[in-house]
Amino acid sequence: MSPTTLRVTGGRVYDPANGVDGAVRDIAIRDGKIVDSVDGGRTIDASGMVIFPGGVDVHSHVAGAALNFARGLTPENYRAARRFLHAPGRRQGLGGITPTTFATGYLYAGMGWTTVNEAAMPVLTARHTHEELHEVPIIDKSTLVLMANNEFVLDLLEAGETERARHVVAWLIWAAKAYGVKAVNPGGVNAWKWGRNARVLHEPVYGYETLTPATIIEGLAAIVDDLGLPHPVHLHCNNLGIPGNVETTIETMKILEGRRAHLAHLQFHAYGGDDWGTMRSAAVEVAEAFNANPNLTTDAGAVLFGDSVTLTADGPWQHLLYQLTGRKWANLDVENETGCGIVPYVYKDRSLVNAVQWATGLELMLLIDDPWRVHLTTDHPNGGCFWRYPEIIRLLMDAEFRKEQLRQIAPKARERIVLGDLDREYTLSDIAVVTAAGPARALGLTEKGHLGVGADADVTIYPGTPDGDGILFSYPRYVLKGGEVVVEEGDVRAVTEGKEFIVHPPSDEGTAEYLRPLFEKAYTMSFANYPVEIERVKGADVRPLH
Amino acid sequence: MGGKVSCTLGEVTNRADFIIFWGGNPAECHPRHFTKYSLTPKGRFVPDGRKGRTAVLVDIRETPSAKAADIFLQLRPSKDFEVLTTLRALIKDQRVDPAAVAETGLTLEQLQDLVDRMKKARFGAMFFGMGLSMTRGKHMNSGALLNLAAEMNAFTKFVCMPMRGHGNVTGADVVLRYTTGYPFGVNLSRGYPRYNPGEFSTVDLLVRGDNDAAFILGADPGATMPQPAIEHLASIPTIVLDPKVTHTSRLSRVHITTAVTGVSAPGTAYRMDEIPLPLAPALRSPYPTDEEVVRRIRRAVARRPAWQPVDENVRSAIA
Amino acid sequence: MDTKEQASPLIEHKGVRIEDTFAEAFGMRGARVVITARSPEWARTAAQSLTGFATSVIGCKLEAGIEADWPARETPDGRPGVSVLVFAFDADGLAKRLIERIGQTVLTCPTTACFDGLPDAEDRVNVGGMLRHFGDRFQSSKFLDGKRYWRIPVMEGEFLIEESFGVRKAIGGGNMLILARDADAALEAAEAAVRAMRGVRGIVLPFPGGVVRSGSKVGARHYKKMIASTNDAYCPTLKGRLGPESALSEEVNSVLEIVVDGLDRAAIEAALRAGVDAACRAGVVAISAGNYGGKLGKHHFHLRELVPAKPEA
Amino acid sequence: MWLGKNRRRLDEFFDVEGEKSEELRIVGDAGRVKWIGRDMTRGRIAVEGHAGMHLGSRMAGGAIEVSGDVSDWLGAEMSGGAIHVRGNAGGQVGAAYRGSLAGMRDGTIVIDGRAGLEVGQRMKRGTIVVSGGVRDFAGLEMRGGTIVLGAAELRTGAWMLRGTIVVLQSIPILPTFAYASTYSPTFLGLYAQRLKRLGVEIPVDEHAGAYRRYTGDAAIPGKGELLVWEPRG
């Protein structure tokens, strides 16, 4: 069994939430929590090593029907993937671009990340998402439920029934056993069900009289605030990936003034130009607008060169990408709620568009002043796999290295970006902010992302010097999750079960009865079977509201 | 290169105004499909129900489902691939050879008419059955229809999905995908998942006699598989878990009677559109559930010394 | 040209004086084009057309000639063929000329196909890969054993051409002069020499019928703009006017030159050796060679090395 | 080597003789031995008997000869080298493994006997010859390269984008292939010359016949070609 007490001594601690910046401190752990001091138990001598709070991924796609669809679509990726052989206490699996469930847990923990937010879950298949998450070991998880194309919600917003809409959203969150609300291409996914998109924020969504993407964004942001959810509305803006979308993104920020919101994978929304030939980075404009809006948080959605699978609820974008690449395409529309598209993709450094994307993600992280408001992500697996985060960390910390990399990219792209002019280098403390403290704060997970007394004992201990590739963060020496040593010397040593964070916002008692007839008209299953039973969410941890 | 463009069945109910059934006989094999999902129900954007939809049936014989269709296209056996490939060309305004088309049993005019109607549809849905996926061409026939549906999205909205067979086939497919990465035909004998349909799929393993034991759950290969496969099953230790005695039980060493899933055993079943449905048992059964039996076998096996896979990339001393 | 007759020990071959001088030749870049066709005649027709108007780089930017007939079993596509050697100052020029000439003379010629004859050469120029544009995107390619071939649809059927052609260092301007008593003797000797030299692989004789009657000198005495002008020292009709400046002795009344371009020194030597031997016959006074004092071209072929050493008499 | 899930020594199954060498001779029935010559880059393997699945899979160089039959996935995704099978082969010769975008990338496969389904599926380059004929879907989704077939069943060249399939007798043609002309393609001479050295004859004599050229597959739309030999008279 796990030791109930543990001490980590002699390491340099980076705990920005508590103002600790590289001081040598001892960390004491009892019953999975960080405490002042302990007597006895195991001691890990971390002299010469650096200590971080366990990483927190604010936006990743690790489970659910869409990801599972992608798995089936790309067997060729698995043949080249890292293999996990089964062993006593450890299950088989495959890594790669869309790792299998067990492998996902081992890979995140092996990298030092201990909390992951699955960013897109329909209510209708939430039961399945939770089944998968249950099979993702070690790490703690949370989910966001897709809401910006749910026809019940859209109809109410169109009718101006915001009060009722709030109750419906609350009811749906609990039905899905979700932690927060995700809005993907508001109105656009719904329009895609007729093969259309929502390109203009202030024009009615196809099929509606007055409802615009702007009203959906405003409405959902208000509802999430009113419900007091720990995490604000998590928004995937309209026009993802399209040259010139900078205008949409900045306009979205205006719509959100005075509201909390998290803008997902900002890189994909920060392009200038008119078409693929003239596309350029608009990171400067976007970062400037973002810096002026302290109500917002965001994550990078950085791109790394190499294979990926793009996977998003943004169905129309995926159809466009399919037509551009001429490769495989999968699409799965979910009745009444959302859709999803999947297209395998290769980011090439010699491609103008891809090189601009690569630079834009880094530029945003370097141009946004406050590291607390921008988090490290690749929108896994869209921009690159989560297990490649250490590569981004190196790029952020080393301006010289960035300049070297710039020489490899399509020469034309160098005129479309500003990365070469940016000398900022992240400090270790900044890295602790963008990988753990910041995202934990944005998610409202008060026991995560720091090492103060009372925090969950999720601790990652890295060697004090970089490895041969100049990457400091690829292999932690130790990873503690809930006070247990789960990774030691690059090997998964103990496989624990993680928690699942959910919320239970209040909804009017009549909400179910209001929804039932609508549901029976729109859906093809029984209403009683719609909500996920709480018993099906293993390790559920219902979090308080504001 | 192809794609899989699908949706949940409610999307079809609410939106589809043009529906093609290919190589299937839902009227007899999926009796509630027409009435519950695809044809007769009124949908949000198809308020007239059946009147608001055009149904096409493509098959090699006039099954009872033909009566439910507005258009019945009868093609000659094993010509599905030829017809679908022709349709893929026609939607792109490419020329085809009328004489070769005629050999399928359908005329070029019939197919052009079908294409014109498909393009005029607001939301098209295609369903296919074993008449397509299990006849000459097999997975390539299904692939042809899936590709046609994907490519139709350049003109209008189209989706496509298989009418899956009995049992929780879709569920097995879903769970295998998230645990191993692959949907079927998975081999774990090296300690990690390997996949190769034709090599590791059950029928191929059995026909070649590659496996030395069989554990069969929720299937009756003894009724459907080719004779060499059946003979091999009979020659090795075969264990069957099933609520009733099946063809496979008769040739197995052990048959364990289990509770009927959904009737007296709980769980999750996946509908053909991959929606998970909770199963609430209505009755009690004197028999254990499949899950219980598997857990008990697993516990018993765990008492034996464990087999440890060796990483084949590590060139050990044995080599 | 250095026109002085050398007063050195007398060399003789078959009774003909071999002047102790040398041919001065230049470094060039060469390629070999193998043309096949349905019949040997069509292959030769294309080859003749390809090598037409390619006597001297000075006036034609290219020197070319037919090297050999190839039996069907030796060609890449198993049809009868002809190989052609082409020479230019550099690889770029060679590529340009090949594209122009193959495009106009082989692509257009019925039943032909066109292959690289220097597969081992490391330097390569893109020829088929440019000519493919004639196909207006209807062309297609085949990749076999590391080589790409282009298939260009034409009215007759298809024209097949290899994408890249090997280029190697080569030598141009090897030569010999036949100094004869009269015009008949000069021509007969030249014809005999050409017949003998054409049996050697790796060389071509770029002038008409292999023979040039109008040897030239660098520049001109009177016209400043002329790059080359008549080789007055070897013109028999000018002996009277030039006096001692003429290179010709009393009995010489006609001179013909044979110019050899080859892929390497050994091939040119073999050709000259055969040529000198064949040209030494009745009516021929002497065999000489053209040079520029040895300062312009780095390849020198000394005639005395090309005739069998005479046993000491 | 592996027996099922267990790792065993080679000499439990074979009598092993000789020194380390670039040449390997396997004598006896290896019909159930998979992955012979997988990933090989040079040298020579001679199998005197049958060989199992995935023979020469992903090989990049060298040569393999089999005197008997081989199973499926012969030379799958190979990128160079040569394989010669005297007997018959299974399906997916030179094909792409499931999901891969490209099958055979270069090299040569010669089968004196017959082969199964999906020969040369998604191949990009290289040459496959099956003298005895194949089953359905030869050259499926082919993207380049050349396949020469003694005979073929249905759907030859289905969904091909580019590449050449030569068939030495009349076959059923998909409606999405358009007949173009009857001629003697010059480039076939190149292949004929090369394959003659491997003991394979392709007819190129204009007096003996000509090839009917079909282009397709219009479903893609592709610009591949089927060349079907038609003897004169």
Put the structure in a nutshell:
By secondary structure, chain C is an alpha+beta fold. Chain C is 22% helix and 34% strand. Chain C has a 15-stranded mixed beta sheet that branches.
Give an overview in words:
Chain A is of the alpha/beta class and 546 residues long. Chain A has one domain (52-500): Alpha-Beta Barrel (TIM Barrel), CATH 3.20.20. In chain A, the strands form five sheets. In chain A, strands 6, 9, 10, 11, 12, 13, 16, 20, 25 and 26 form a ten-stranded parallel β-sheet that branches. In chain A, strands 1, 2, 3, 4, 5, 21, 22, 23 and 24 form a nine-stranded mixed β-sheet that branches. In chain A, strands 17-19-18 form a three-stranded antiparallel β-sheet. In chain A, helix 5 packs antiparallel against helix 6 and helix 6 (162-176) crosses helix 8 (213-227). The radius of gyration of chain A is 22 Å and the shape is globular. With 319 residues, chain B is α/β, with parallel strands linked by helices. Chain B folds into two domains: 9-162, Dimethylsulfoxide Reductase, domain 2; 169-302, Rossmann fold (3-Layer(aba) Sandwich). Helices cover 37% and strands 18% of the residues of chain B. Chain B has a five-stranded parallel β-sheet. Chain B has a three-stranded parallel β-sheet with strand order 9-10-11. In chain C, strand 8 (140-144) and strand 9 (147-153) form a beta hairpin. In chain C, helix 1 (40-51) packs across helix 3 and helix 5 (183-197) runs antiparallel to helix 7. In chain C, 47% of the residues are buried. Chain D has 233 residues and is mainly β. Chain D has one domain (39-233). Chain D is 5% helix and 28% strand. Chain D has one helix at 186-196; strands spanning 2-3, 6-7, 23-27, 44-48, 63-66, 82-85, 108-111, 127-130, 143-149, 162-167, 178-183, 209-216, 224-231. Classes of the chains: A alpha/beta (546), B alpha/beta (319), C alpha+beta (313), D mainly beta (233). Chains A and B meet through helix 1, helix 2, strand 7, strand 8 and helix 4 of A and strand 1, helix 1, helix 10 and strand 13 of B.
Highlighted features:
heterotetramer, C: 313 residues, alpha+beta, Alpha-Beta Plaits, 15-stranded mixed β-sheet, two-stranded antiparallel ribbon, 7 helices, elongated, D: 233 residues, mainly beta, 11-stranded mixed β-sheet, two-stranded antiparallel sheet, 1 helix, 5% helix
